[in-house]
């Protein structure tokens, strides 16, 4: 027997223990490619065993004497499948949360350099939105693909269903302000049109209605909320 | 604990092992026992994880014995004083005693199932007030810089004996107490100024 030392499903359990740790510590762990691959390999082995058991007693009227064995192989296969699916579903959920926590700024999420979180922590403000640390390296290629197409779907929804520009195609810039902004934070409604912000991370020159503003770290600005809303969500600015 | 197909907790809970006695020989599965035998022999007793046990029991290939956490000894202890039984010690760290019990209950029929069900609900009912009570006082004690309320040995032992479900409830109640306190303090301040 190939699996003499461990029971079926042990590897899959390891995978799910990782998921649980991820929930408990509220972090995205690195995609465990090695473990996933070895579980898939175990699946192939099981299938081979199952096929062999089926082939040993072909087409008899009497029930196959190996029937219990076959059932157990089948159960183990189903179990592994459930574990794999649950692992990936759990990760997808986390990725979606991450996506919304940065206000749908996918490029930001994927290009976040590993130095950035240390930078943000040095400021000591513990801004949860700015936390995603070097997300890219923790993802599998498929997960990056998922995020991209998820992003595309959201953008389509935004332009087709929630944008006033769709109904009033003649107006261009003026109509855009009346869009429902899917990405806006909804935690508390703003009380003021203007907001005093502190720059947590450099974000270069931003063109606003009051003209171009160079957001440098440590400076404070009083700006129109609508102009910088997305920067606040993404953790570049912080309300004072 | 929900039974969702994708639920991580539910999957891990099914790793809990129970003892099965096989009624027939099963070829090529001897490794499940960890031994070197090639086949499982009839009448041999083996510890099997729940997810594998279901099919064996439903197909009538094996019988299972009521596992230790629900044995007569534990039931008697629960009857005597439910709050003095360490549930976490029965199912291992972070284990779900109630979840496990529910799984066992579903494997049984009629009267035995009803009995397990009664044990579960009765135990839960008699332990819940203590759980909530301690959660509130624990929050108050740690909030005011460590009073002497939480340091009592009996309450500490009880806290360590909570099963996974009770632990979650404890956390919720604690958070609840903390938030109520904060709300009370802030609204008070607003009223004065």
TrEMBL record, chain A:
<keyword id="KW-0539">Nucleus</keyword>
<dbReference type="Pfam" id="PF24997">
    <property type="entry name" value="PSF1_C"/>
</dbReference>
<comment type="similarity">
    <text>Belongs to the GINS1/PSF1 family.</text>
</comment>
<comment type="function">
    <text>Required for correct functioning of the GINS complex, a complex that plays an essential role in the initiation of DNA replication, and progression of DNA replication forks. GINS complex seems to bind preferentially to single-stranded DNA.</text>
</comment>
<dbReference type="InterPro" id="IPR005339">
    <property type="entry name" value="GINS_Psf1"/>
</dbReference>
<feature type="domain" description="DNA replication complex GINS protein PSF1 C-terminal">
    <location>
        <begin position="191"/>
        <end position="239"/>
    </location>
</feature>
<dbReference type="InterPro" id="IPR036224">
    <property type="entry name" value="GINS_bundle-like_dom_sf"/>
</dbReference>
<comment type="subunit">
    <text>Component of the GINS complex.</text>
</comment>
<dbReference type="InterPro" id="IPR021151">
    <property type="entry name" value="GINS_A"/>
</dbReference>
<dbReference type="Pfam" id="PF05916">
    <property type="entry name" value="Sld5"/>
</dbReference>
<protein>
    <recommendedName>
        <fullName>DNA replication complex GINS protein PSF1</fullName>
    </recommendedName>
</protein>
<feature type="domain" description="GINS subunit">
    <location>
        <begin position="53"/>
        <end position="158"/>
    </location>
</feature>
<dbReference type="InterPro" id="IPR056783">
    <property type="entry name" value="PSF1_C"/>
</dbReference>
<keyword id="KW-0235">DNA replication</keyword>
From TrEMBL, chain B:
<dbReference type="InterPro" id="IPR021151">
    <property type="entry name" value="GINS_A"/>
</dbReference>
<comment type="subunit">
    <text>Component of the GINS complex.</text>
</comment>
<feature type="domain" description="GINS subunit">
    <location>
        <begin position="70"/>
        <end position="184"/>
    </location>
</feature>
<dbReference type="InterPro" id="IPR036224">
    <property type="entry name" value="GINS_bundle-like_dom_sf"/>
</dbReference>
<keyword id="KW-0235">DNA replication</keyword>
<dbReference type="Pfam" id="PF05916">
    <property type="entry name" value="Sld5"/>
</dbReference>
<dbReference type="InterPro" id="IPR010492">
    <property type="entry name" value="GINS_Psf3"/>
</dbReference>
<dbReference type="Pfam" id="PF22466">
    <property type="entry name" value="PSF3_N"/>
</dbReference>
<comment type="similarity">
    <text>Belongs to the GINS3/PSF3 family.</text>
</comment>
<protein>
    <recommendedName>
        <fullName>DNA replication complex GINS protein PSF3</fullName>
    </recommendedName>
</protein>
<dbReference type="InterPro" id="IPR055221">
    <property type="entry name" value="PSF3_N"/>
</dbReference>
<dbReference type="InterPro" id="IPR038437">
    <property type="entry name" value="GINS_Psf3_sf"/>
</dbReference>
<feature type="domain" description="DNA replication complex GINS protein PSF3 N-terminal">
    <location>
        <begin position="6"/>
        <end position="57"/>
    </location>
</feature>
<comment type="function">
    <text>The GINS complex plays an essential role in the initiation of DNA replication.</text>
</comment>
<keyword id="KW-0539">Nucleus</keyword>
């Amino acid at each position: 027997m190939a699996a003499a030392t461990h029971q079926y499903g042990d590897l899959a359990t390891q995978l799910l223990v990782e998921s649980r740790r991820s929930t408990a510590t509220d972090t995205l762990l690195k995609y465990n490619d090695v473990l996933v691959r070895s579980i898939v390999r175990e699946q192939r082995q099981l299938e081979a065993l199952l096929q062999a058991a089926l082939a040993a007693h072909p087409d008899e009227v009497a029930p196959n004497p190996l029937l219990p064995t076959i059932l157990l192989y089948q159960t183990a296969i189903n179990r592994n499948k459930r574990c794999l699916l649950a692992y990936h579903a759990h990760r997808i959920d986390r990725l979606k949360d991450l996506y919304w926590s940065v206000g749908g700024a996918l490029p930001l999420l994927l290009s976040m350099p590993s130095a950035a979180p240390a930078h943000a922590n040095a400021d000591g403000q513990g801004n949860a939105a700015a936390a995603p640390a070097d997300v890219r390296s923790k993802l599998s290629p498929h997960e990056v693909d998922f995020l991209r197409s998820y992003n595309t779907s959201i953008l389509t929804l935004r332009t087709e269903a929630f944008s006033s520009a769709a109904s009033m195609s003649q107006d261009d810039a003026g109509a855009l302000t009346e869009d429902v902004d899917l990405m806006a934070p909804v935690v508390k409604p703003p009380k003021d049109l203007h907001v005093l912000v502190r720059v947590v991370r450099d974000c270069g020159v931003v063109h606003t209605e009051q003209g171009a503003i160079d957001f440098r770290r440590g400076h404070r600005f009083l700006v129109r909320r609508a102009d910088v809303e997305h920067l606040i969500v993404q953790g570049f600015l912080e309300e004072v | 604990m929900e039974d969702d197909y994708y639920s991580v907790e539910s999957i891990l809970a099914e790793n809990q092992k129970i003892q099965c006695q096989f009624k027939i020989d099963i070829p090529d599965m001897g490794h499940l026992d960890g031994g070197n035998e090639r086949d499982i022999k009839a009448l041999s007793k083996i510890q099997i994880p729940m997810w594998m046990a279901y099919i064996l029991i439903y197909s009538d290939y094996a019988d299972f014995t009521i596992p230790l956490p629900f044995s007569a000894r534990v039931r008697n202890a629960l009857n005597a004083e439910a709050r003095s039984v360490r549930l976490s010690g029965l199912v291992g760290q972070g284990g779900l005693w109630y979840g496990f019990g529910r799984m066992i209950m579903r494997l049984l029929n009629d009267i035995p199932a009803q009995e397990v069900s009664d044990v579960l609900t009765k135990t839960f009912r008699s332990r819940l007030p203590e759980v909530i009570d301690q959660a509130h006082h624990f929050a108050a004690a740690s909030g005011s810089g460590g009073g002497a309320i939480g340091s009592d040995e009996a309450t500490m032992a009880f806290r360590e004996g909570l099963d996974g479900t009770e632990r979650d409830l404890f956390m919720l109640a604690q958070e609840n107490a903390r938030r109520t306190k904060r709300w009370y303090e802030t609204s008070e301040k607003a009223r004065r100024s």
